[in-house]
Amino acid sequence: MQFLDDSLLPENQQALVIQVAPYGPEFLPGDSDDIPVTMAEQVQKAVDCWNAGATVLHVHVREADGRGSKRISMFNEMLARLRDAVPDMLLQVGGSISFAPEGEGNDAKWLNDDTRHMLAELTPKPDQVTIAINTNQMNICELLSADDVAGTSLAQPELQEAYREMWIPSGPAFVAEHLKRLQANGIQPHFMLADVGQLETVERLIRRGVYTGPLVLNWVGIGGGADGPNPRNMMEFVNRCPDNAVLTIESIMRNVLPLNTMAIAMGLHVRVGIEDNLWGRKGERMTSVQQVEQMVRIARELHREVATGAQARAIYRIGEHYASADETLAQLGYAPNRKPGTRGATLRLAA
Fold first, then answer.
1. 106 pLDDT exceeds 90?
2. Between 106 and 198, residue with greater pLDDT
3. Smallest Cα–Cα separation from 31: which of 196, 216, 159?
4. Residue 59 near residue 96, CB atoms below 8 Å
5. What span, in angstroms and rounded, lies between the C-alpha atoms of 270 and 32?
6. Cα 57 to Cα 79: distance, rounded to the nearest angstrom
7. Is the pTM of this model over 0.85?
8. Most CB atoms closer than 10 Å: which of 91, 99, 175, 194?
């Protein structure tokens, strides 16, 4: 991504897309007053986040007992209700479905490939399904302090052990097949990337024609196998993104606010919600809605417009698909593939 002399001026920046993750599948209902459990409560939480200014909803679902649901039927019901309740909100299903342990002390595992592929068959279909790239450690506890998890189930040693040992199964065969199925069904993949190496893998998938669509992605700076919440890591990732990528900054606990403030100033997009962070000021809980409202206030102080649902849909290029690797590279702002016999740098040439 390039920064010109006028890139920090808000009138030259895209409207801010606020992504919200209010369902927190790693937490249990007693961990916070902000965890919706019934289907009606989960839908109302989406409405409240929409009214506060969020335009992208990261969707997980809970069963009646408060555990994270792994049933496709529950996701179908949730999506149908959300389409009625927040018709202009972009619906982004978490590609892990739910990685919460099924019982106390059990491993925190993602579902198998066949089950995750079924996300391409959801009805009604979501706008997006998130996808991780490359099998990788996902130790969400590495950066958590005792203060971060105080009063939650993650303070229990057996649950911390489960989440500490969590990893993402996302090898080449799964990724290629999942991208194929999502694209065939008109669902946009939202890439959740932990470092520049994973971004390079996505670029190779694009150059080889495996993925031919917009590049909409999160930099996931949560440590534990991903980049840590270091501004230098974030800036290197920003530097490596092509010009027309749509980049959202995602972090963990009280790192969310400073990194999101940087993102808003730079013209990037933000993610908030209790899946990532429970806190405002040290020791003071903050709800998902309050976190959305905070992003809106900061954007207004910086004179940056907050996206409407229609603007978010246009920025994310929902529904776009490209005919070839060459067209995808050109649309995203990557240099073209090398043609036979070409030496030196591959240049973008005017049509």
1. no
2. 198
3. 159
4. no
5. 23
6. 11
7. yes
8. 194
